[in-house]
């Protein structure tokens, strides 16, 4: 492996395990500070955010975290497993942010009545929601809106509200780092410099703006909130995962 691209907390886990080398970028001065890891081992390749999805045919629509506990959703909800899928891990991190650590675990325990069961892949949940096999599942903005716009998936994105009516999301960026002892280190550096170049990053930014505009059309008109502590929280979770792999 020469270059690793993955979601939190797996990039933090790889860093902790010594799988990453120092990741430098030719145009490093143009990068904002929050795009660089504190230890210099990885950078943010592309922004992304956690979201939930709900089937177009489901009525009444789930609007809040509490709604997902309703008996009418028994065996109609599924989320990817935290620690095995990046989006599932983001769900746990977001619930901790919204409810508190213990309250988040208590909520997930209550949700098990409606949960179909574990899923190692978030990507497999979208088609199930589109077909009506599931009513609600977790996802991320990039993946969900790509399916809505390109595959005409029959679902929409939404951000569940808490008890006060506040809707929150979590930054779920794609991180990139050079592998330690990369067998093709020179080419790895060329790839990193190309992907982080202003021209390529501008293309990614334009696509993100287009998709976030679609998010507001297809889902809740809620402000996307970035948890500024996502890297710290991801590091904490990565430490708790120990040797588990994605």
TrEMBL record:
One of its GO terms (cellular component) is outer membrane-bounded periplasmic space. Keywords: Periplasm, Signal, Transport. One of its GO terms (molecular function) is thiamine binding. It is found in: Periplasm. The keyword Transport applies. Gene3D superfamilies: Periplasmic binding protein-like II. The keyword Transport applies. It holds the Pfam family SBP_bac_6. One of its GO terms (biological process) is thiamine transport. SUPFAM superfamilies: Periplasmic binding protein-like II. This is 2-aminoethylphosphonate ABC transporter substrate-binding protein. The lineage of its organism: Bacteria, Bacillati, Actinomycetota, Actinomycetes, Mycobacteriales.
């Amino acid at each position: 492996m020469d270059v690793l691209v993955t979601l939190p907390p797996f990039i933090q886990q790889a860093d902790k395990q010594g799988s990453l080398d120092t990741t430098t970028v030719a145009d490093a001065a143009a990068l904002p500070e929050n795009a660089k890891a504190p230890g210099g081992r990885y950078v943010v390749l592309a922004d992304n955010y956690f979201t939930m999805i709900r089937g177009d045919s489901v009525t009444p629509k789930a609007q809040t975290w509490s709604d997902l506990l309703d008996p009418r959703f028994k065996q109609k909800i599924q989320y990817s497993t935290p620690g095995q899928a990046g989006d599932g891990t983001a769900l746990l991190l977001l619930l901790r942010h919204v409810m508190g650590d213990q309250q988040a675990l208590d909520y997930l325990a209550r949700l098990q009545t409606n949960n179909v069961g574990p899923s190692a892949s978030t990507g497999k949940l979208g088609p199930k929601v589109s077909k009506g096999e599931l009513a609600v599942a977790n996802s991320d903005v990039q993946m969900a809106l790509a399916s809505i716009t390109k595959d005409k998936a029959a679902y929409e994105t939404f951000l569940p509200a808490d008890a006060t009516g506040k809707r929150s999301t979590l930054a779920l960026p794609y991180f990139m780092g050079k592998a330690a002892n990369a067998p093709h280190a020179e080419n790895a550096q060329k790839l990193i410099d190309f992907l982080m170049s202003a021209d390529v990053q501008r293309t990614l930014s334009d696509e993100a703006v287009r998709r976030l505009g679609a998010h507001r059309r297809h889902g809740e008109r809620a402000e996307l909130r970035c948890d500024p502590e996502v890297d710290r929280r991801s590091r904490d979770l990565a430490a708790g995962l120990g040797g588990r792999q994605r």
